[in-house]
Amino acid sequence: MVFWAILVALCVGAVTIFLTTARTAPSPSEGARRYLLFATPFPTVMDLATGKILEEIPSPDGTLTEYATFARDTAPGTYLAVTVERPPGYDPRQSPRGAKSTIHRLTMDAQGVVKVQGTASGEIEGVIRSLAVSPAGEIAYARTTADKKDNLLSFAGVLGTTSEWPVEDPYRLYWSDENTLVFPSRAEPPWTLRTKENGERFIAGGGFLPTREVRTGAAGKLPVPPDLTSYGMVQLPDRRMIWATASPDDSDIMSLVLYDGPTSIGTVYQPPRGKIVSMTLDPTGSHLLVGHEIARSTGTGMDDFTHDQKLIRIDLRQATGLTTPATSTRRDLAFPQQVVWQGNDLALEEIAW
Question: What is the top-level taxon of the source organism (predicted)?
Answer without folding.
Answer: Bacteria
